[in-house]
Design a protein that fits this description.
Strand content: 15-25%
Number of domains: 1
Organism: Agaribacter flavus
Protein name: PilW family protein
Structural class: alpha+beta
Radius of gyration: 31 Å
Pfam family, one: PilW
Keywords: Membrane, Transmembrane, Transmembrane helix
Helix content: 25-40%
Largest sheet: 4 strands, antiparallel
Number of helices: 5
InterPro entries: N_methyl_site, PilW
């Protein structure tokens, strides 16, 4: 008996084709969604990391710069003796945080409280061989005057969203000598994308019975003139600022911050902002205040 061979052709029906296309679209959409999510997460993480890095850097920089505020050592062999160092030492110790009106060459220079929540200005005095820009302002760099020290005044402020500093020769500011070297007083940028920069000052008026001088309260710069007139001393500085992370990291709504004694502020956009705060004890002014008690 012979069987007739049938030729059968296998194919895909229209329904099967539509199901396959639909599954492909679902899988492709899921893959795209994962890629987009990973990209957003990566940008967010980069913004967080940059904000953290910048904030930690500037707080460390402030601690290094401000720790010696009020320092004046007339016994230092490196101290320039172009002026009366006894009189200069008394001036530095009594003006660790200069105020407007303290200097004849730049009467407006001094610590300032920003109006209506604007950025503050911080100004400090100390003995050093460089200003905050690492300039020697015409003092010695070669033997026998290597690392020559002088009266330095550093100013920190925000301009156009950038935290900047500029340094001065205190002797120039007091009208005792002309400005030389890098005394063009141009500012250098320490940090970009600063939303707010606020400063308060820890003051004391008496020494405790065990000889330890502590801040009794923190005040803004506009309160300092009256306090200084009543024999108060600045023994600590508290700094707070808000920085923006780099890149395209975003949050769902603008962030709000409360810095020190200021009213709350809201970021101008949905970028990633982070607040930082530190308190720096001014050990030189504490020792001076203790001696005056």
């Amino acid at each position: 008996m012979k069987y007739k061979k049938h030729n059968t052709e296998l194919g895909v029906t229209l329904v099967e084709l539509m199901i396959s296309l639909a599954l492909g679209l679902v899988i492709s959409g899921a893959v795209v969604q994962i890629l987009v999510s990973n990209s957003v997460t990566d940008k967010f993480n980069k913004a967080v990391a940059s904000a953290q890095e910048n904030g930690r850097y500037i707080m460390s920089r402030f601690r290094d710069d401000l720790l010696m505020t009020g320092l004046y050592d007339p016994l230092s062999p490196n101290l320039s003796r172009l002026v009366d160092i006894v009189e200069e030492g008394a001036f530095v110790r009594n003006h660790p945080v200069p105020l407007p009106g303290d200097f004849v060459s730049r009467p407006a220079l001094g610590a300032l409280q920003g109006a209506n929540g604007d950025n503050d200005t911080l100004v400090v005095s100390l003995q050093s061989d460089r200003d905050c820009r690492a300039y020697d302002l015409g003092y010695g760099r070669a033997a026998p005057l290597a690392d020559e020290e002088f009266y330095v005044v550093n100013e920190y402020f925000v301009d156009g969203g950038k935290l900047k500093c500029r340094g001065f020769d205190g002797r120039y500011l007091r009208g005792q000598k002309p400005a030389v070297g890098h005394n063009s007083h141009s500012a250098v940028t320490l940090l970009d994308d600063v939303l707010s920069f606020q400063v308060v000052y820890g003051i004391t008026q008496v020494a405790s019975t065990n000889g330890i001088t502590r801040p009794i309260r923190y005040v803004s710069a506009n309160e300092l003139p009256n306090l200084f007139a009543n024999n108060a001393h600045v023994v600590a500085v508290r700094i707070a600022l808000v920085v923006k992370g780099e890149g395209e990291g975003f949050v769902t709504q603008p962030s709000t911050f409360k810095l020190l004694n200021e009213n709350s502020i809201t970021a101008p956009d949905n970028g990633l902002y982070k607040a930082f705060e530190t308190t720096i004890t001014l050990r030189n002014t504490k020792n001076f205040a203790r001696g005056q008690a």
